[in-house]
Amino acid sequence: MWQPETVEAHGFRPLLLLDVDGVLLPVRDNTVPNGYYQPSANFRGVSLEHWDSGEMHRIWISAANADRLRRLGEHFEIVWATGWNQHANEIIAPLHGLPDLPVIELAWSEDLRSLETSWKLPVIVDRALAFAAHSDRTQ
Protein backbone atom coordinates (compact mmCIF):
# COMPACT_ATOMS: atom_id res chain seq x y z
CA MET A 1 0.00 0.00 0.00
CA TRP A 2 1.32 3.45 -0.96
CA GLN A 3 2.10 5.65 2.01
CA PRO A 4 3.23 9.24 1.38
CA GLU A 5 5.47 9.35 4.44
CA THR A 6 7.46 6.28 3.35
CA VAL A 7 7.88 7.43 -0.25
CA GLU A 8 8.75 11.00 0.71
CA ALA A 9 11.27 9.79 3.31
CA HIS A 10 13.26 8.37 0.40
CA GLY A 11 13.26 11.73 -1.39
CA PHE A 12 10.69 10.78 -4.01
CA ARG A 13 7.30 12.34 -4.57
CA PRO A 14 5.06 10.61 -7.09
CA LEU A 15 3.87 12.59 -10.08
CA LEU A 16 0.33 13.88 -10.34
CA LEU A 17 -0.34 14.60 -13.99
CA LEU A 18 -2.99 17.30 -14.07
CA ASP A 19 -5.38 18.16 -16.88
CA VAL A 20 -7.24 21.49 -17.03
CA ASP A 21 -10.52 21.09 -18.94
CA GLY A 22 -13.05 19.16 -16.90
CA VAL A 23 -10.73 18.93 -13.88
CA LEU A 24 -10.06 22.56 -12.90
CA LEU A 25 -12.36 24.22 -15.42
CA PRO A 26 -15.90 22.86 -15.69
CA VAL A 27 -16.63 22.17 -19.35
CA ARG A 28 -19.72 20.77 -21.05
CA ASP A 29 -18.12 20.18 -24.41
CA ASN A 30 -14.47 20.95 -25.06
CA THR A 31 -14.90 20.45 -28.79
CA VAL A 32 -16.75 23.75 -29.15
CA PRO A 33 -15.59 27.27 -28.26
CA ASN A 34 -16.82 28.60 -24.95
CA GLY A 35 -17.98 25.19 -23.70
CA TYR A 36 -17.15 26.25 -20.13
CA TYR A 37 -19.88 26.78 -17.55
CA GLN A 38 -20.45 27.79 -13.93
CA PRO A 39 -21.52 24.66 -12.03
CA SER A 40 -22.28 26.54 -8.79
CA ALA A 41 -22.07 29.95 -7.16
CA ASN A 42 -18.72 28.88 -5.69
CA PHE A 43 -17.05 29.44 -9.07
CA ARG A 44 -16.01 32.93 -10.21
CA GLY A 45 -15.87 33.90 -13.85
CA VAL A 46 -12.68 35.06 -15.55
CA SER A 47 -12.52 36.35 -19.13
CA LEU A 48 -9.48 35.60 -21.22
CA GLU A 49 -8.32 35.90 -24.79
CA HIS A 50 -7.53 32.58 -26.43
CA TRP A 51 -3.83 32.43 -27.33
CA ASP A 52 -4.41 31.10 -30.87
CA SER A 53 -7.75 32.45 -32.05
CA GLY A 54 -7.84 35.73 -30.13
CA GLU A 55 -11.47 34.97 -29.21
CA MET A 56 -12.69 35.89 -25.76
CA HIS A 57 -13.59 32.98 -23.48
CA ARG A 58 -15.11 32.92 -20.03
CA ILE A 59 -13.76 30.27 -17.68
CA TRP A 60 -14.88 29.43 -14.15
CA ILE A 61 -12.44 29.14 -11.25
CA SER A 62 -13.02 27.60 -7.81
CA ALA A 63 -11.04 28.70 -4.74
CA ALA A 64 -11.65 25.19 -3.36
CA ASN A 65 -9.62 23.76 -6.25
CA ALA A 66 -6.71 26.04 -5.33
CA ASP A 67 -6.79 24.67 -1.79
CA ARG A 68 -6.99 21.07 -3.05
CA LEU A 69 -3.98 21.63 -5.31
CA ARG A 70 -1.99 23.13 -2.44
CA ARG A 71 -2.69 20.03 -0.33
CA LEU A 72 -1.91 17.67 -3.21
CA GLY A 73 1.35 19.54 -3.80
CA GLU A 74 2.46 18.52 -0.31
CA HIS A 75 2.57 14.86 -1.41
CA PHE A 76 2.88 14.91 -5.20
CA GLU A 77 4.99 16.65 -7.80
CA ILE A 78 2.26 18.23 -9.89
CA VAL A 79 2.92 18.30 -13.63
CA TRP A 80 0.64 19.75 -16.31
CA ALA A 81 -0.61 17.11 -18.75
CA THR A 82 -3.05 19.17 -20.77
CA GLY A 83 -3.69 20.50 -24.23
CA TRP A 84 -3.17 23.93 -22.66
CA ASN A 85 0.58 23.09 -22.57
CA GLN A 86 2.62 26.13 -21.34
CA HIS A 87 -0.54 28.24 -21.34
CA ALA A 88 -1.51 26.37 -18.16
CA ASN A 89 1.42 28.09 -16.41
CA GLU A 90 0.62 31.46 -17.96
CA ILE A 91 -3.15 31.44 -17.27
CA ILE A 92 -4.34 28.63 -15.01
CA ALA A 93 -1.50 28.47 -12.45
CA PRO A 94 -1.79 32.10 -11.27
CA LEU A 95 -5.57 31.77 -10.95
CA HIS A 96 -5.03 28.84 -8.57
CA GLY A 97 -2.06 30.26 -6.65
CA LEU A 98 0.36 27.77 -8.22
CA PRO A 99 3.96 28.36 -9.23
CA ASP A 100 5.09 27.46 -12.73
CA LEU A 101 4.86 23.69 -12.99
CA PRO A 102 6.62 21.27 -15.32
CA VAL A 103 4.67 20.63 -18.52
CA ILE A 104 4.35 17.49 -20.59
CA GLU A 105 3.92 18.90 -24.08
CA LEU A 106 0.87 17.40 -25.76
CA ALA A 107 -0.20 17.93 -29.34
CA TRP A 108 -3.68 17.15 -30.62
CA SER A 109 -4.08 15.33 -33.88
CA GLU A 110 -7.23 14.05 -35.57
CA ASP A 111 -5.57 10.62 -35.59
CA LEU A 112 -6.02 10.58 -31.81
CA ARG A 113 -9.81 10.91 -32.06
CA SER A 114 -10.17 7.15 -32.68
CA LEU A 115 -8.52 6.17 -29.38
CA GLU A 116 -10.81 4.41 -26.92
CA THR A 117 -9.08 6.18 -24.02
CA SER A 118 -7.87 9.71 -23.39
CA TRP A 119 -5.88 11.16 -26.28
CA LYS A 120 -3.20 12.09 -23.74
CA LEU A 121 -2.40 8.53 -22.68
CA PRO A 122 0.06 7.64 -25.47
CA VAL A 123 2.34 10.47 -24.30
CA ILE A 124 1.98 10.04 -20.54
CA VAL A 125 1.60 6.28 -20.13
CA ASP A 126 5.22 5.72 -19.08
CA ARG A 127 5.18 8.60 -16.58
CA ALA A 128 1.92 8.58 -14.66
CA LEU A 129 1.40 7.39 -11.13
CA ALA A 130 -1.73 9.49 -10.75
CA PHE A 131 -3.57 11.27 -13.56
CA ALA A 132 -6.46 13.65 -12.91
CA ALA A 133 -8.36 14.06 -16.16
CA HIS A 134 -11.85 14.57 -17.45
CA SER A 135 -13.19 11.93 -19.79
CA ASP A 136 -14.63 13.35 -22.99
CA ARG A 137 -15.98 9.94 -23.96
CA THR A 138 -19.60 9.06 -23.41
CA GLN A 139 -20.48 5.42 -22.99
- The total count of helices amounts to 4
Helical content band: 10-25%
Q: Structural class of the helices, strands and pairings?
A: alpha/beta
Integer-rounded radius of gyration: 16 Å
Q: Order of strands across the widest beta sheet?
A: 4-1-5
Instruction: Note poorly predicted spans.
Output: none
Summed over residues and divided by their number, the pLDDT gives a mean of 79
Q: In total, how many beta strands?
A: 5
Let me know the largest β-sheet: 3 strands, parallel
Q: How far do the termini sit from each other? A: 31 Å
Overall shape: it is globular
**Helix-strand pattern:** HEEEHEHHE
β-strand amount? 15-25%
Attribute tags:
5 strands, 139 residues, alpha/beta, 3-stranded parallel sheet, two-stranded antiparallel sheet, 22% helix
Short précis:
With 139 residues, the protein is an alpha/beta fold. The protein has helices at residues 4-9, 63-73, 87-95, 121-124, and strands at residues 15-18, 43-49, 56-62, 77-80, 130-132. 22% of the residues lie in helices and 18% in strands.
Structure description:
- With 139 residues, the protein is α/β, with parallel strands linked by helices.
- The protein has a domain at 4-26 and 62-132.
- It contains four helices and five strands.
- The chain has helices spanning 4-9, 63-73, 87-95, 121-124; strands at residues 15-18, 43-49, 56-62, 77-80, 130-132.
- The strands form two sheets. Strands 4-1-5 form a three-stranded parallel beta sheet, covered by helices on one side. The protein has a two-stranded antiparallel ribbon with strand order 2-3.
- The radius of gyration is 16 Å and the shape is globular.
- The chain starts with a helix and ends in a 7-residue tail after the last strand.
